[in-house]
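Hey everyone, long-time lurker, first post.

I ran two proteins through the pipeline my lab uses and got sequence/structure pairs for each. Pasting them in order. The first:
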Amino acid sequence: MRANLVTWLFDATARLPLPILHGLGAMLGWLMYLLDAKYARRMRENLAHVYQGAEEKFRHVLHANVREMGKSICELPYIWRRPLDQVLGKVQSCHGLEHVEAARQRGRGIIFLTPHLGCFEIVSLYLAARMPITIMYRPPKLGWLDTVMRSGRLRGQTKLARTDVSGVRAMFKALKRGEAIGLLPDQVPGNGEGEWAPFFGRPAYTMTLVGRLAESSGASVLLSFGERLPRGAGYALHFTPLEFTQDAPVAMQLNAALEKTIRECPAQYLWSYNRYKVPAGAQPPGEKEKTG
């Protein structure tokens, strides 16, 4: 019953033009920021660390980020419930598409790494219209939201894999078939599934799955994100190749590449995400040195 009501609300909201949804989202962003002290504090703390000594830049990115986070919520009905051809029609440009085509020609599979930057939902839909892709996702705690989320994402040639052993197995199998997979590389993994690596100068527990997938399959690795264009004009997609070397741990190279990508569009990153949390059961960074 609740899932049906939410679906109806999403369908009704999806009828609004994208510029109006983004305008409403900008207002929603400020409302969330003013009413949720914990959310606002984490956003400020994460940004302040990145822009130490650059107060004017910090304020500019913070205010823009407040608006962009609201837009990221209000655009979901449009992305998930509008006809797929209308959604993909909002993609105004693709930068680095030649890297995607080159990776497809190799035939070893493709690992798309899409951080919490811009509209990451539209990236997977764009790719699924062109190739089979298995997306790893973490089901929300609210069952009714999971229903809406799955129906919005399972379009084109998309398959969904849960963040568990069965999901990891599905990712390996997809790459073995020469297909594409997609992950959120800045999502905090569970204990034993990551290692500590610098992320904007602070230790962050970083998934090791990306390195294992790339090494075992020989697949091409591409960073991707969907930049939200001003005034609801649509989206610009970006694809950048990432090659791991033997010079440093993969987790460190991954975070360095993510930093570079995020700095291209810092106002659209999810700075309110608790990226630096210690997963349950994991040893905090530096603890071994203190106790040993």
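...and the second, right after it:
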Amino acid sequence: MSFGAFTSGLLTGLREGVEAALIVAIVLAYLARTGNARHASKVWLGTGLAVAVSLLAGLVIFNTVGTLQEPYEQAFEGATMLVAAAVVTWMLFWMRRQAMAMRGELQAAVDRVLTEGTALGLAVLAFTAVIREGIETSLFLVGQATSAETNAPSLAVGALAGLAIAVAIGYGFYRGSRRVDLRAFFRWTGIALVFIAAGLLSHAVHEFVEIGVITIGTATAFDISAILSHDDGIGAFLRAIVGYSARPEQVTLAVHLVYLVVVLGLYLRPVRPPTPGPDQRAVPTTR
């Protein structure tokens, strides 16, 4: 088993899994508090469908890669990693701004479903809330799996372990536990995902260089393979986690460094809380 791929999958499954688990926990806790716990099965139905669709989407994309011939395989792999990095980057910033109002928005949505719609609307609510996290996770893991090549099984095991921990955190939140500092948790795992996304982006650029789509800056920036090879040991671990390369092309290195500087700088900036709506002003936040 590759420890680097396992750790990368663990971080991804943990971060994205916690977001989905918190959404489900907030809805279930609100139903219990308002005397509507009998509708919890609808929430689980929507959650289960969202997980199934996300898993199916990931399997279809991953298996599609293996059926393509060169250079289409490299092009598809590069595009998958590019999309995964873009989606995760967008979701990190979206979650960063919306997190403080998430509980109020979900509770307001539950109220609308129970008063204006049918209880089955809870299944739709849970599905739409969880599918966003599920599809994002599937895309990100497929992007990591295509870059990890033979380490894909280790990545999958790590992701499952991360999701299991996420479920435990969600259950603890539902039961009223406050032992986990969610603000710090999301901040540090978000930083880790920025580094992972940078690795995916640079690996995507490398794939495009290999098939001749990118022809500028293709010369090797440096070669330290004799000191720290990316094929085994610590180098292989760093390659799985942050996309380390012992002999990167100039354009690959430049994209990697620019992404880290720009995205980390923006992500670590203080964020102004969103202005709550009329139905959210007295609602406590999730973090």
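Reply from user beta_strand_b:
Welcome! Quick read of the second one: The two ends are 35 Å apart (CA to CA). The first helix runs from residue 3 to 33.
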